Structures are given as C-alpha cells and as structure tokens.
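This follows on from our talk about sequence and fold. Go ahead and set the record down below:
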Amino acid sequence: MKQTNFYLYHYAANNPIKYIDPTGRDDDIPILHLIGEIEGYPETGDTEWRAANDQVFIDACNNYNSKYNLSEGDDGYVSPRMLKAQAMVESGGANDKDAFLTDPLQVNNYDDWVPEKARICGLTRGQEMTPETSAAAALEWRRYKGYIHDNNGNETEWEGDWKANYDYNGNRRPAPDGSDREHREWYADREQELSQ
C-alpha cells in the first residue's frame, strides 16, 4: 500500500493541502487538520498550531498498535484521537505552544522523572524532546501504567483506559476545576470525555 507523504510544499492532484507555495517562500502554509479539533481546543487563528502534531499522533498510534498487534476494541488500543485528547489536556492550553511543539504528552518533565522511564520509554532525564519522541514514549508509559504486572514484570491484566490515564498523570494535588477530586482523577475523566 502506497502511503502519502505530507511535505510542507507537497504539490499533487487531490492534495488536501489547500494553499500551496511551489516556490517555497511562503512561511504561512496552513497546517493539516487530520484528526480534527478536540472539543474546547480550537485550531484556528493563533491556536492553529494545535493541529501541527496530527500526523505525529497518527504515526505513533499506528506503530504502537502494530507493535502490540492491537485493533480497535482490544485492551490497550490507542486511537490517534485518544492520543491527541491526552496531548490537549497535557499541553494544549493557549499559552502552551512551546510545550505542545516539543513534548506534547509531557512524558519527560524533569520534576516528574522516575528511573522506570529509561527502561520503559527509552528516555533520559532532561532529554531534549520532539513530538515524535514524546508520542512514542507516552504510549509506552501509558501502557505500563495501565497494566497490572506480576513479580517478574510481565503484564497480567489491563485495568482500562481510565486507570492508565489516571496513573500516567499521578498528580495528587486538587483538580483544576475546583472539585473535591485529585488532579489525576480529573485528568483521566477529562481525557475520556475528550477522546469520544
């Protein structure tokens, strides 16, 4: 199966890129919106950058699901929309552009570092991140957090997407919505809600 490449100046028939500059001089080329907006996180004007990682999320999910032989409905399966929703909760705020364009899943925050991330995700503490590295590492970390493991570290039982997101975050401070919940509970609820 032939895959389409979405280069910044890709010029071909039936190309979904609306405005093409074959000279390569226009630096205001619209961003592809492949996954679609996540509710509450518009992708227009000053926040169009929220669509910049769509292809990264698609590729990361395809690689991850293929690696573990997962299809929609399988335990641990992650859709690009689910991953994008998680990224929006992590770094999709209007003032978080730099974080979103480097470590959108915030999997390698210096203050959140635990040594298991080296083994599970292949990261080093303080490593310079790219969206590709962030997405791949986040999927592995989320998987690790979503499974119960035996004494040898083998996966034994999937605890569900909500629990995977809850443990992925780990923040026990109060939720940002002012409710009585912990931040990680709000986080898991919010991701479930947005990924629908």
